[in-house]
Design goal:
single chain, about 180 residues, alpha+beta, Aminopeptidase, eight-stranded mixed beta sheet, globular
Length: about 180
């Protein structure tokens, strides 16, 4: 399934996305802002990650999209939703390549996936977390309609250092649905 927004096409990941993923996710600044991207991002890691995502998609545990420019198809990043065991809620994760930061792409993608989560997947809740030292990600979540729910001190280890997390979430009742973006 594809989701279209004003400027973006959210589409399934393909193995041909691997070079773009390696190049963009391999940037130290991108990797340092996520819980799950390693640095350095070595050859073969993107292909293996795409294959593991497909296994989780096939099992019904993951909904994942490449974030691409609708106009020219250029690859900008990834957004996904890890479904909880009960399939009633899911954890949102995303990253956008550094050349595309501060242009509203993350917010646009997050809004679209939240809407998809409630309207198509019929989830009861979407939640996400970001490192406290990365307030830009929190602003994305807020602009996309998520609400701050809490804080976890020293919750996650990244590059040998304990990181604090800010927690966000939203239910269908709390979410103000943006104009239709799905195709």
């Amino acid at each position: 399934m594809n989701i279209r927004t004003k400027r973006l096409l959210l589409r399934p990941l393909k193995l041909s996305d691997a070079p773009d993923i390696q190049r963009l996710a391999g940037d130290r600044d991108v990797a340092s802002t996520t819980r799950n991207i390693e640095h350095p991002y070595e050859d073969g890691m993107a292909e293996n990650w795409i294959k593991s995502c497909q296994e989780k998609i096939d099992a019904g545990d993951l909904v994942n999209f490449a974030v691409a420019h609708q106009a020219d198809g250029s690859f900008l990043g990834v957004i996904g939703l890890h479904l909880d065991e009960d399939k009633r809620s899911g954890e949102l994760g995303y990253w956008i390549g550094k050349p595309f930061w501060n242009q509203g792409y993350a917010t646009e993608a997050v809004e679209a996936v939240i809407k998809h989560s409630f309207n198509k997947l019929e989830l009861d809740r979407v939640y996400a977390a970001h490192f406290t030292r990365n307030p830009s990600s929190g602003r994305v979540m807020q602009k996309a309609g998520m609400l701050h729910e809490g804080f976890l001190k020293g919750h996650t280890e990244k590059c040998g250092k304990l990181e604090d997390l800010e927690l966000y979430g939203v239910t269908p009742e709390q979410f103000e649905t943006p104009p239709s973006t799905e195709s």
